[in-house]
């Protein structure tokens, strides 16, 4: 029986993915965590924990380096909330360009008998701009960015895309009318609207800061619906005061940017739709099931991607340091117990490696000895033996 512990509100459709082999929130020493936005950065992790799956895109609430050394695989659910974020970006582009928020506030304040006469006179205050024909720079063309780029094209906009790490899968999703450029400065210099859709890491922190804003057109509208810190808010405030940026929209508020009419802050709702939460929960549950039952690591954040057919009686999975002679030591330990290796795969991701070894059946005594001998190898983080279903 596998034990799963959930944090935050996980959509019921996701929980329904688990069959009778899984129990939900019945143990404080679970095999898996299924989480959303809970902050685990200062958490202690149970010894039995094998995987943490984030029902969403960002994993900056998980201490990746720490859990990797504990042999815990970390996954997210890429693309599950992409459409939700795209639709919010499109809605806000229209709202800001047409001054809808200001027009609404005006209408709420002017509700007396002469409202029709007054609004006919005052409505020119809210003259906006159409999106058709405007240029939008989409920085990051992954799951969200590619959808935003295609939606902007459908609105008649001219789309400039920048993504130095664009995967082949993502490239197929992007309309060939998107003008791709080689540098971020090329993308920014032409755009009426700039929207950023990149993961947060060391390279993307302050990706949009003083120098990047200098390259933008005066009066640009800027969106950050990726993560706090990808756009430098200090530089944004200065640019807003100088009217370089006409409006800034973000999902990540802080006092520095609050109470400004040129700044629209939403309370981290980019991916918060009923549909997105259900898709993320379903994808997250399926990821837990697949990893616990097969050891496959497709879309794993901290381990290399390995996926091979599980056709033998037993599968040995080992998370370990990426150093010489590890696989040789594993093979020797297995051979010493007269266990036949039928298939093997090994890959590395930076300082960590992952090995899957498929073997013939063996008894409980050999299993105990094998676990002890592999765990005793210096550099092994976690070893697991999975029985074929």
TrEMBL record:
Its EC number is 1.1.1.399, 1.1.1.95. One of its GO terms (molecular function) is NAD binding. Keywords: NAD, Oxidoreductase. Residues 315-388 form the ACT domain. It catalyses: (R)-2-hydroxyglutarate + NAD(+) = 2-oxoglutarate + NADH + H(+); (2R)-3-phosphoglycerate + NAD(+) = 3-phosphooxypyruvate + NADH + H(+). It holds the Pfam family 2-Hacid_dh. InterPro entries: ACT-like_dom_sf (IPR045865), ACT_dom (IPR002912), D-isomer_2_OHA_DH_cat_dom (IPR006139), D-isomer_DH_CS (IPR029753), D-isomer_DH_CS1 (IPR029752), D-isomer_DH_NAD-bd (IPR006140), NAD(P)-bd_dom_sf (IPR036291). Pathway: Amino-acid biosynthesis; L-serine biosynthesis; L-serine from 3-phospho-D-glycerate: step 1/3. Catalyzes the reversible oxidation of 3-phospho-D-glycerate to 3-phosphonooxypyruvate, the first step of the phosphorylated L-serine biosynthesis pathway. Also catalyzes the reversible oxidation of 2-hydroxyglutarate to 2-oxoglutarate. Belongs to the D-isomer specific 2-hydroxyacid dehydrogenase family. This is D-3-phosphoglycerate dehydrogenase.
């Amino acid at each position: 029986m596998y034990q799963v512990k959930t944090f935050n509100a996980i959509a019921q459709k996701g929980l329904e993915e688990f069959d009778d082999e899984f129990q939900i929130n019945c143990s404080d020493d679970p095999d898996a965590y299924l989480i959303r936005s809970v902050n685990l950065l200062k958490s202690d992790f149970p010894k039995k924990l094998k995987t943490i799956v984030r029902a969403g895109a960002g994993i900056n609430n998980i201490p990746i380096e720490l859990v990797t050394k504990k042999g815990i695989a970390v996954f997210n659910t890429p693309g599950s909330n992409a459409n939700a974020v795209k639709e919010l970006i499109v809605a806000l582009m229209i709202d800001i360009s047409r001054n809808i928020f200001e027009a609404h506030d005006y209408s709420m304040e002017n509700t007396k008998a002469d409202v029709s006469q007054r609004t006919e006179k005052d409505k020119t205050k809210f003259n906006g701009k159409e999106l058709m024909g405007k240029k939008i720079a989409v920085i990051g063309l992954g799951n969200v960015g590619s959808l935003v780029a295609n939606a902007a094209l459908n609105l008649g906009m001219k789309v400039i895309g920048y993504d130095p790490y664009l995967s082949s899968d993502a490239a197929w999703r992007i309309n060939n009318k998107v003008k791709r450029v080689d540098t971020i400065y090329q993308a920014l210099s032409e755009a009426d609207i700039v929207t950023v859709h990149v993961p947060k890491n060391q390279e993307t922190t302050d990706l949009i800061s003083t120098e990047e804003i200098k390259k933008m057109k005066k009066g640009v509208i800027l969106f950050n619906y990726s993560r706090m810190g990808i756009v430098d808010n200090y530089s944004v405030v200065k640019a807003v005061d100088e009217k370089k940026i006409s409006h800034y929209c973000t999902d990540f508020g802080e006092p520095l940017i609050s109470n400004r009419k040129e700044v629209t802050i939403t309370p981290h709702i980019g991916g918060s739709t009923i549909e997105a939460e259900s898709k993320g929960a379903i994808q997250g549950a399926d990821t837990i099931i697949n990893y616990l039952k097969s050891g496959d690591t497709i879309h794993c954040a901290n381990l290399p991607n390995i996926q091979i057919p599980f056709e033998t009686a037993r599968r040995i999975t080992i998370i370990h340091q990426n150093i010489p002679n590890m696989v040789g030591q594993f093979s020797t330990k297995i051979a010493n117990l007269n266990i036949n290796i039928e298939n093997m795969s090994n890959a590395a991701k930076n300082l960590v490696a992952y090995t899957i070894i498929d073997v013939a059946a063996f008894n409980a005594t050999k299993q105990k000895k094998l676990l002890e001998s592999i765990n005793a190898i210096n550099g092994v983080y976690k070893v697991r033996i999975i029985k074929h279903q």
